[in-house]
Amino acid sequence: MTNELHNNKSLSLTSRILIGLGLGLLVGSIFKWIIGGQDDVYISLGFFDLAIKGFFVDGLLTIGGSIFVASLKMLVVPLVFVSLVCGTCNLSDPSKLGRLGGKSIGLYLLTTAIAISIAISLANLVSFDKIAGLQTSSEFVAKEAPSLANVIINMFPTNPISAMAEGNMLQVIVFALLFGIAMTLSGEPGKHLAKTFNNLNDVILKLVTLLMNLAPIGVFCLIAKLFSSIDYAAIAELVKYFFVVLLALFIHALIVYPTLLKTITGLSPFTFLTKMKANALFAFSTSSSSATMPVTLETATKKLGANNSVASFTVPLGATINMDGTAIMQGVATVFIAQIFAVDLTTSDYLMVILTATLASVGTAGVPGVGLIMLAMVLNQVGLPVEGIAIIMGVDRLLDMTRTAVNVTGDCMVTCIVAKTEGELDEGIFNDKHAAEQLEEIHFNKK
Fold first, then answer.
1. What's the rounded Cα separation, in Å, for the pair 424 and 99?
2. What is the DSSP string of 366-435?
3. 148 neighbors 355 (Cβ within 8 angstroms)
4. Is 306 helix (H, G, I), strand (E, B) or coil?
5. Which of 47, 120, 380, 411 is 20 to 30 A from 352, alpha carbon to alpha carbon?
6. Pick from 316, 424, 295: nearest CA to 82
7. Chain mean position to CA 268
8. What's residue 268's pLDDT?
9. Count of beta carbons in the 10 Å neighbourhood of residue 218
10. 413 with 405: CB under 8 angstroms?
11. pLDDT at 50
12. Which domains, from first to last, does the chain contain?
């Protein structure tokens, strides 16, 4: 009996999340069949229909999933601020921030440009003009995206407390960097304050671990709710578009990222991808790089071995400006919309799409509905009808989940490269298959 309990406890967090995801998909699909069944099924299961829709889907599943996502988002601002202050004040050379910034932004823009190039190339190999039943009467009205100049100006907060309350990550990052540099230059008082921040950082990371142990339940609720209400007919109509985007995402995550990592650092791509499993599952279930940021930061430091002084800078920055998954969607969507509206795009148009989407990944940082806003910008740039966005919105939810998993994988890949080139990567931790596994356990009876 003791051995059985030990074996159950030894089940990894990744395995528990996968079980939660699989059960959520199964339960959600069953609920969908019952709620959206044929007329005869409706008649015989009318009571269960109401019970499942009202009590489970709109009740327990919605509450459980919302609490899980809200709990992750709750940690984002304090984790980023405290971790970034700790990382900055621990730098012996504050000028190192310039190198970190240059390398990080350069790599993020490079991977984004590669992503959209792959997407456009794949999309042009597929003909979308034979897809039937598409309606273009509905319109999508995009909010106006801010200019790049305004984004740069707005990076500097007039009220840092307000920036934290509103979750404006660029302003929080800038304030944390300035605060950390000031602590470094303050001598003895800064050292005393640094100890407090380091202790606070340990407590916050333990809170992250606590929430990670609840992840299987949260993932189950999110996936079950999604599959109980998703419109399968919409997916069927756009199946080719869906799978082209999915293929491009997999190529980018499983070929481009590992190739860059191996070429620049010599680190094992297999080890990297293996350690990204739990993080990618978190991102897939939440569809939010920001909500997944606490888990991404812990993965980068505790599992991949990146020093906190690097990871606390590159991970929040990546969650803000790294839009590789979204860029892939834009590339395929542009070709798709152009073909169904019978608009021919020239080579210069495609180059303009690549340039616009790459720069927009920074220019629209922090804007709600960033993916659709960026796509509207791209379509306008090459003269395509913006109302075409309404056609792909039916399947965008599932693709958005996969895009987020790709984005967080890119965040960790760039973190590893920057940390390795700065001599801030512990290869012993990176190569340790069981690194941080003990940190995923919570013992409430510990004295």
1. 13
2. T-TTHHHHHHHHHHHHTT--GGGHHHHHHHHHHHHHHHHHHHHHHHHHHHHHHHHHTT-B-HHHHH-TTT
3. no
4. strand
5. 411
6. 316
7. 23
8. 92
9. 25
10. no
11. 63
12. 10-440 (1.10.3860.10)
Identify residue 288 by its one-letter amino acid code.
Answer: S
Half-sphere exposure at residue 402, Cβ-oriented, CA atoms within 13 angstroms? 20
What is the spatial distance between Cα 153 and Cα 380, in angstroms, rounded to a whole number?
25
Look at residue 233 in the predicted model and tell me its pLDDT: 53
3-class secondary-structure state, position 357: helix
Could you tell me if 241 and 336 are in contact, meaning their C-beta atoms sit under 8 angstroms apart? yes
317: CB partners within 8 A, 6+ apart? 101, 104, 105, 108, 173
CA-based nearest residue to 300, from 285, 270, 325, 278: 278
Sign of CA dihedral 354, 356, 358, 364: negative
Query: CA–CA separation, 369 vs 396, rounded Å?
Result: 12
The C-alpha atoms of residue 382 and residue 370 are separated, in whole angstroms, by: 19
Determine the pLDDT at residue 161: 93
**Which residues does 43 contact at the CB level (< 8 Å), separation at least 6?**
none
User: What Å distances lie between residue 193 and 77, 180, 184, 187, 201, CA to CA?
Assistant: 19, 10, 10, 10, 12
Instruction: Say if residues 362 and 321 touch (Cβ distance below 8 Å).
Output: yes
Say if residues 332 and 256 touch (Cβ distance below 8 Å): no
For tokens 């994988």, the residue is: 409
pTM above 0.90, yes or no: no
Across the chain, which has 447 residues, the per-10-residue mean pLDDT values are: 46 76 84 62 51 76 83 78 78 70 86 90 77 44 58 84 82 85 86 89 81 82 78 62 91 95 93 90 79 86 88 83 83 85 79 74 50 70 71 69 89 93 89 69 53
Q: What is the distance between the alpha carbons of residues 146 and 359, in angstroms, rounded to a whole number?
A: 12
Q: Quick check: 322 and 411 in contact, CB under 8 A?
A: yes
